[in-house]
Amino acid sequence: AENMYFFSELALTLNEPEERVAPTDSRLRPDQRLMESGRWDEANVEKQRLEEKQRAVRRRREAEAVEALEEGKDYEGYIPLWFERKVDAMTGELICVYKGGYWEAKDKQDWSVCPDIF
């Protein structure tokens, strides 16, 4: 346990790679894989690259929203692939509810709808 930062066995195995998952699965993060291999400097460079890529996507979406507003058009923005936000009838809180599609895509190994996030 001391060598594993006192994490439980469950905590240590949560990030284990799994075959046939979506290319957006967080276990496929290249910076994380480098870190787990002890390649700290490379992991840090990769993490910075990924964060800048995410910022660029956010800036592009924000620019598209401004452009749509200026043109008087509706702009939907980002729509998650497999979840949708709904108000919980019991609590009134906003929750994310699975809307389907992931397991079918996994069975077919058709990840064509997944964005390139890494």
TrEMBL record:
Signal peptide: none
SUPFAM superfamilies reported for this sequence: Oxysterol-binding protein-like
One GO CC annotation: cytosol
Molecular-function GO terms, alphabetical: cholesterol binding
Entry-linked InterPro entries: OSBP_sf (IPR037239), Oxysterol-bd (IPR000648)
Pfam families, A to Z: Oxysterol_BP
UniProt-recorded name of the protein: OSBP2 protein
Source organism of this protein record: Pitta sordida
Lineage: Eukaryota, Metazoa, Chordata, Craniata, Vertebrata
